[in-house]
Amino acid sequence: MSEPWRLHTVVFDLDDTLYPEADFVNSGFGAVDSWLRANHGVEGFEERARALFAAGHRGRIFDAVLETLPEQLPLALVPTLVEVYRSHRPQLRLFPDAQHAFDWVTVVNLGAALVTDGYSQVQRNKIAALGLAARLGSCIVTDELGGRDFWKPHPEAFRRVMTAHPGPAAGYVYVADNPRKDFIAPRQLGWRTLRVRRPGGEHASYEGTAHESAEREIVSLASLPELVRQSG
């Protein structure tokens, strides 16, 4: 292992970094299924939606499922189903190694923050379900900074972390999983970057370009302590 980093603040991504994003997706499918049963007497949505997601579908799943249901519900119902999905209160659990990482960050007295993309209501419901507000010094949802224009790789969320947790730029590390967007802005700001490449993760097979890639990779947050040395 190369020389440990001297850090003062660890900043985490949320989806597939701290918990399995598929758990939220399947929870949302369950909420839509319950709504359809209660309001239209329709069964089978959740099973069909889960199967499509597991097969790799990542768009228009609601449309596709409605088209296969024998009740032939109108596609005009899709926006309502999307709202049910986005507004539901999920039951989520941290990855075990994320729990251990939080405990370690507290013990060694490092700053901690969250920067996450996604619609505000959805991400806030996830943050609440995981109890992250009590664990992290700041939880920044990029959507709340001005909509999708401020989603990663826009640097504003990372600048706000630097305001809330002042210190040398090289003393921050962003821990995330998606090279397509996660590491570009923090690298430009002089941060350290760390990719969590969990086997079977949503973005695990993606090979980032030199512009996108993190400085280091790990397969579990359990490896975080050996990469870090406190500043001071």
Keywords for this entry:
single chain, 232 residues, alpha/beta, Rossmann fold, 2 domains, 6-stranded parallel β-sheet, two-stranded parallel ribbon
CATH class descriptor of the largest domain: Alpha Beta
Number of domains: 2
Taking pLDDT < 50 over at least 5 consecutive residues as the criterion, the unreliable ranges are none
Q: And the CATH topology of the largest domain?
A: Rossmann fold
Question: Could you spell the SSE succession in H and E letters?
Answer: EEHHHHHEHEHEHEEHE
Number of helices: 9
What's the layout of helices and strands?
Layout: E1 5-7, E2 9-12, H1 21-40, H2 45-54, H3 61-68, H4 78-87, H5 96-107, E3 111-116, H6 120-130, E4 138-141, H7 156-164, E5 172-176, H8 184-188, E6 192-196, E7 216-218, H9 224-227, E8 228-230
Parallel strand pairs: 1-8, 2-3, 2-5, 3-4, 5-6, 6-7
Task: Provide a short characterization of the protein structure.
With 232 residues, this protein is α/β, with parallel strands linked by helices. It is built from nine helices and eight strands. The strands form two sheets. The chain has a six-stranded parallel β-sheet, with helices on both faces. Strands 1-8 form a two-stranded parallel ribbon.
